[in-house]
Amino acid sequence: MSDSRIFFPSQPILPVDNSSLGQRKSYIKNSAATGSSFADILERASDGKVTFSNHALQRMESRNLNFSERDLQKLDDTVTKMAQKGARESLIYMNDMALVVSVANRTVITAMDGSSAKENIFTNIDSAAIL
Questions:
Q1: In the chain, which ranges are E strands?
Q2: pTM beyond 0.70
């Protein structure tokens, strides 16, 4: 024989504090009023530019590698196209420079000049672009 009675704990049940809920609702309303989706906010935060890791910056400085504004724009466009194709880690060869790029993070991981690149084997890449 089973007991069908319901037992409650001895402590009283307290009402929920809704004061912070009102603040949260106003934040949601403000975000909705601007018409910004998460993707829009994320794109504005990242501004879509390729960045360089500290390692890449050190390599570029030690190897005397420089980019013009046009080169940076070309790199941005190439990374965007590679992302659309589903690339994750890529080798981009441009202006006698080899760049290993994390496409998902839009970050240059390392950079080397063409003569250094000839002696190296590149691993853990899934795509390449020659510009």
A1: 51-52, 89-94, 97-102, 107-113, 127-130
A2: no
